[in-house]
Amino acid sequence: MEPHITPAAPSAPSGDLHAWTRDFAVMSEHSPREVPAFPPEAFFDRELSWLVFARRVLAQVEDSSLPLLERVKFAGIMGMLHDEFFMKRISGIKRRIGKESIKLSLDGRTADQQFEGCRTELVRQAEALAVVMREEILPTLAAEGLPIINYTEVGESAQRDLSGYFRESVMPILTPLAVDAEHPFPFISNDALNLAVMLPTNGEKQETFVRIKVPDNRPRWVLNAHGFVPLEQVIAANLDLMFPARPPSRAYVFRVTRGAEGDLDLNADLSEDELHEPGSIVQQVSAELKARRFAGVVRLQVAADMPEEMVAWIGKRLGVTSDDIYPTDAFLGISDLLSLDTKGRDELQLPRHQPVTHPRLKHLARSDYEAIFREIQRGDILLHHPYDSFDTSVLRFIESAAVDPAVLAIKLTIYRTSKGSPIIQALAEAGRRGKQVAVLVEITARFDEAPNIAWGRFLEKEGVHVAYGVEKLKTHVKLALVVREERGEIRRYAHVGTGNYHTGTARIYEDLGVLTCHPEICDDVAKVFNQLTGAIGAPEYSHLLVAPVTMRARFIDLIRREAAHADAGRPAGIRAKINQLQDPPVIRELYLASRAGVPIELNVRGLCCLRPGVPELSETIRVFGIIGRFLEHSRIYRFENGGDPEFFIGSADWMHRNLTNRVETIMPVLDDSVKHRLDRILNVYAEDNCSAWECRPDGTYIRRAPSEAEERHAAQEVFISAGGRHVPAPVTASIEAELETLPVPAPLDDL
After folding, report:
1. Phi first, then psi: what are they for 224, rounded to 5°?
2. Which of 58, 300, 364, 744 is the most exposed place for a label (fewest CB within 10 A)?
3. What beta strand segments (E) does 348-402 contain?
4. CA 158, CA 162: separation in Å to the nearest integer?
């Protein structure tokens, strides 16, 4: 099997990759506490590196060895990733261009150079996606009896049925908006499909522009006897029913993407007095959410057959330049493939994965709400989701605490959670039972601000103490604390995780968590909650690494310690599994550790600004990432420590924002059995020979492939099959219904 290769991120603006490394030994002759300045060529651009990650996702669409509907799912994810990249990252670059910012990126690019590089790669990826859809995915869907076809390709009988559907179920919803002397150009909402309709004017040769929004509360793919027909085509083909006196002469599809760059500016437009008013943050977030709807346009997608003069006319009214216009002959809004109704075609998907109960929790009687606490007393429990069931571990931990008479208090952080969340219901039940319940709701979690405000208000009505984050810092910690009274004494239990308390994503995101009653860990967790809810100063922590207070400095000390071990000839090494790597101080320390001879293995799912394998800079550093059916989301850090390895897990990546602008927690692993299991997990990833992508010094990624003598070894498949966890057997109706509504694994918070 030939490995797949992703193109390199566009090269740095100037400089030779190896020219500057010849003098690196001289650059490194500093005291251990002095970090040399590294030239821009030592780094990859953050935005372009993320787009190289998107290329690896695109390779899943192109991979003919995957089941068809898995490829369709990844095609939808690609559309969603591009949408979010425009909203978050392109909007930020364009803002810097508009301000004429002179700040350079990590690899020395101006904002204009970043935009041009990103635009080129985005266009290249969109074209590649269109080709694979046109030449492989759509024909194969048709061959399997699931065709997505044009309205003109169905017979007259089917067209009559579709016309009836339009007349009865679609036309009553539509609102045509004309543009003329009396009607201004309408507001075009973000990511909605639209039809640009040219309506003949009575008695004149001129035409009137009419905009019709394609309703998003109707199925995008209209099922009929011949297959799925895009809703916008059904509307366009039947506009004579809406305009019987003047049937439209032309109709073209277009779509707008608006910016949502950065986190909400909570202090914008607030006076000093207003800023310190109780509840002002909630009011400001609500106002910002309303303002976001009207943010500037960063992308105008148009059908390839739309006339140039119409494209220019629409673009002018939206305030975009030609660089912001993206014609395509593919479906607009390709993320809607995620809603394609394929029920009953399980043979075209990977076998459904059903999480299983952790071995140490299997014997616990459901009615025994004290049982899970007794089990935690026996030793820390490491949970690896989605292989270990979230419902029978973390959810059970919270639900048991809610009804256990011995529990006095529950504290928990909410960053993202699911609709109808059983976690929220359990917290409300605990409040109704008179327990002290405190919840930190992060209301600036991007795109989840509105539901988080709603959850907070619901919990407040149930008697729960709700805090809304920390001023100027996003709260990204994943912590839960339960306080019990046992034989007249207080004992605390904690869950420290890498993922959100979200029962939906817990089935499709790979994450870790530890259930513990270690007194010092629980004491640190309690201090974090007091800091978050009580607005007190940063306390001293005995074990936890807490950002932005101690985390970066502690990680840098750990990296430098490994360099010292290597210099002294002692065992040294760093292994990390993270989502993103971008923090310049950490990268510089990794380079110096590599220079000292420390072997460094970095399992980085997404963007990586570090160049691995460069002589005299990073030749002992290996970077790879896993792409599979589950979104890799956990963070593990392992330091060899002279032969006495230390392990850490938690919420933070090695990103500037995580270490500087967020409240994050990383927990040292103290239980030997948990350390051993983490070692095995890291080894499984390192041995992956088919779903791992290796980063090369020039920024290209090559997919590992087993040799003829090797067995296939995909990490996620190994974890699924371990302990009989691969369960393709039928599941219960309630689980079936939940699986149908699960979100897709998009790294929403990683951009």
Report:
1. -140, -175
2. 744
3. 381-385
4. 6
Structure tokens at 705: 């492939």
The rounded percent of the chain whose pLDDT value lies above 90 is: 73
In sequence order, what are the residues at sequence separation of 6 or more whose Cβ sits closer than 8 angstroms to the Cβ of residue 601? Answer: 573, 574, 575, 576, 622, 682, 686
Contact 445, 452 (CB under 8 A): yes
CA angle 346, 716, 84 (to 5 degrees): 80
The sign of the torsion formed by the CA atoms of 710, 715, 717, 719 equals: positive
What does the block give as tokens for 712? 């296939």
The gap from C-alpha 135 to its chain's centroid, in whole angstroms, comes to 29
Show the tokens assigned to 26: 């001289």
- Among 19-33, 123-137, 620-634, whose mean pLDDT is lowest? 19-33
**CB within 8 A of 402, min separation 6: which ones?**
410, 426, 427, 429, 430, 433, 435
Residues designated catalytic: 476
For the CA atoms of 469, 474, 479, 484, the dihedral, rounded to the nearest 10 degrees, stands at -20
Q: Considering all CA atoms of the chain, what is the largest pairwise distance in Å, rounded to the nearest integer?
A: 91
Please give the average per-residue pLDDT across 722-750, as a whole number.
Answer: 43
Sign of the torsion formed by the C-alpha atoms of 61, 82, 227 and 154: negative
Cβ atoms within 10 Å, residue 597: 15
Tokens of 279: 């509840």
User: Nearest Cα to 673, choosing from 378, 331, 388?
Assistant: 378
| pLDDT tens per residue, range 408-438 | 999 999 877 666 789 989 999 999 999 999 9
Strands (E), 171-316: 177-179, 193-200, 207-213, 221-224, 227-230, 250-258, 297-303
Classify the C-alpha dihedral 120-125-128-129 as positive or negative: negative
Q: How many CA atoms lie within 13 A of 748 on its CB side?
A: 16
* Signed CA dihedral, 220, 224, 228, 231: sign only: negative
Question: How many angstroms separate the Cα of 248 from the Cα of each of 4, 209, 243, 648?
Answer: 47, 10, 7, 64
Would you tell me how many other CB atoms lie within 10 Å of the CB of residue 219?
15
Can you tell me the distance from the alpha carbon of 678 to that of 662, in angstroms, rounded to the nearest whole number?
26
Query: Distances in Å between the alpha carbon of 43 and those of 17, 106, 109, 601?
Result: 10, 6, 11, 17
Q: HEC states along 597-660?
A: CCCEEEEECCCECECCCCCCCCCCEEEEEECCCCEECCCEEEECHHHCCEEEEECCCECHHHHH
State residue 185 phi and psi, 5-degree precision: -60, 130
pLDDT tens, residue by residue, 182-232 = 788 999 999 999 999 998 876 667 789 999 999 999 999 999 989 999 999
Each residue of 143-153: pLDDT tens digit?
Answer: 999 999 999 99
b/e code 176-208 from CB counts within 10 Å (16+ = b): bbebeeeeeebebebbebbbbbbbbeeeeeeeb
Distances (CA, A) of 427 to 95, 249, 437: 41, 58, 7
